[in-house]
Amino acid sequence: MPTWSFRFRLGQYVRTSLWILPVLGLAAGALLGEAALALDDMVGIPTGWRYTATTATGVLTAIVGAMVALLGFVVTIGVLVVQQATGTLSPRYMRLWYRNPLQKTVLALFAGTFAFAFTLLRRIGPDTVPDLGVTLAGLAVAVSLVMLLVYLNRFVHDARPVAIADRVCRTGLRVLGVSVQAQGRCLLLDEGDGGPRRDAPAQVVRTEEGGAVQGLDVAGLVRAASRNDCVLVVAHRVGDFVPPGAVLLEIHGTPGAFVEPRRPAGLVALGAERTVEQDPAFALRVLADIAARALSPAVNDPTTAVQVLNHIETFLHGVGRSELRGRHVLADRDGRPRVVVPGRGWEEYLELGVTEVREYGVGSLQVCRRLRALLDGLLAGMPEARRPAVRRQLALLDDAVDREYPEGFRRTLARTGDRQGIGGGGSGGGGFPSGSPTRPDGPGRPDGGT
């Protein structure tokens, strides 16, 4: 029986594959062609909808050639996306672009129309013309052309970095909304309510090949630990790269609880690279990559970085309103702790979102101003427990600005928050003018903070 990790990787392959759906469309087109031929023999076609053998052959031949040309055109557009992503965006974005259902649907429709028309061609003879099939083939071409226009419109608009950043942000927030508790459908305990102590594990499970942790079958881990009366500790977070031979799981409890260590190892999926399936930080990683690439000397487009910061701020606000834990202690139905999964805290998300943009973009006034407005907004909108991390990032930004801008006036400009970078009136993160006594990081903050 295939393990959970195998099924998970297979599902990832199917979702990111660009050939499976077109091949299914090819098969469906051939089957529909046979059905149209059978139906043509049973249904009477009005005289006005009948074709001569020469006309039908010409129409179907033109459709076959057009579908092949359109397939090549869409593939060419896909190659352009790959070039753009690797050159000006982030290679990590390709992991999300492969999932685009519209492109797969268009390819499947073109392939299906090709197979449908080609199937009809073999039935054309001096006295036999599949009139119904030729009409349906013409309708399929019309639908294909409409879908091509929709695809071109989507491609033209979504090829912009800001549109890609918006899609990545929404994907990350959607994944963030699915918590470990919801995925595992089991009880989530407080960290002090259970879990293994700091004693040595009774048994460890090591990985043989290594790879990036792509996902966990949390429910399966809980069932396995409950069945063997032990506690399983996942040694690495989703997104971490695990070298060959490293500890994958720690088993606390009775020594030798698992006779076959490979069975619990099959509940952790490893792959060649990270995936967003259970890793919302991967989406933030892609956003930071796009902003950093825009700030590279080869691209030198700080305005794009500012636009990406808009979506990084949206993502960080979503993270800040979520319940984050350093580790998740999961229990079985009886309330006994069974699985410990490492989590990712607020500070780690914040560092991932702003560190590289600060380091690479400190030389741009508008990036510094937009980044300060971002941090000011987080300072005003986050709970008090999460504000110290934001203040540390503000202090790091001040240090970077002081090193980069020794002149007093330019330093003042760089330390003024502006939601547009330059041209936004120098507003702070909370919408207050820079230096206002009611600015969120000033002494007169409405929430009474310091």
From TrEMBL:
Pfam families: DUF2254 (PF10011)
Biased composition (Gly residues): 420-433
Domain of life where this protein originates: Bacteria
Alphabetically ordered keywords of this record: Membrane, Transmembrane, Transmembrane helix
Start and end residues of each stretch annotated as Disordered: 411-450
Segments traversing the membrane: 20-39, 59-82, 102-121, 133-152
Protein name, as recorded: DUF2254 domain-containing protein
